[in-house]
Specification:
alpha/beta; Rossmann fold; 7-stranded mixed β-sheet; 4-stranded mixed β-sheet; 36% helix
Length: 275
Amino acid sequence: MYKIDFKNNSVDFWKTVMFSKKNNIPGHTILTQAYEQGLLIEDKKKILLNFIEYIKNFENNFKSQLYQDLFASFIVKNNFDKTFLEFGATNGVDLSNTYTLENKFLWSGALAEPDLNWIESLKKNRTKSKIITKCIWSKSGEKKNFFSSKVGVLSTLDDFKNSDINSMPGNTAQRIKEGVNIEVDTISLNQVIREEFNNISPSYISIDTEGSEFEILSSFNFSKYHPAVFTIEHNFTDLQYKIDQLMLDNNYVRIFRKLTAFDAWYISSEALNKL
């Protein structure tokens, strides 16, 4: 087997995916060698090794940026309902955290995307999923300005278009270089679950809203709804620490902190006990 020289640099899932694509080396091989060389920083080593093995079994199927889809499947398995909610979903395929769950693992769920530039392709690409075109926000029934960026994956509510200017200035520069404001109607996460999931929480919630993640979660009814797993983008902003505390207060554990780059992954205490 080809031995990889990491030059003693730390390794995470994002770097793994990029290195794998560039060099045509399986991601699980990269992660296994990095683990053996002590370059994967994680306290829950047994869970990590089991996840690497899971990646090995399904590596040809993932669509996400850094194995979020495989992580959700790894956590849920047959212990919870195979249901998902993903927002923003863009076109439902590229970098999707749920495409593989729906098409390989036969999950069902809903996708939210308020940017009109994506709606047609999203509906075409994800015919099995429910499509929500309102903007998920902390409250329902509001009208908000939404900045539709020419770099569509970076679109966000106008109030948050500069949210990562200090942590990822390149992102911000790309986002605001060209785009238009559109008016969107809002819907709360609680209402989405009531209306689209018969008031039963999906097992996996993927949140990528380019800055509004904490505001959305701050009004979520954690006492009523208990998803097994969340993956939440934070883009290295300080809001990740507020999200950390909110999730901790509601009996969630952040896992693989040093390995998930611009994302934060949380599992419920119930899900953790089943691993």
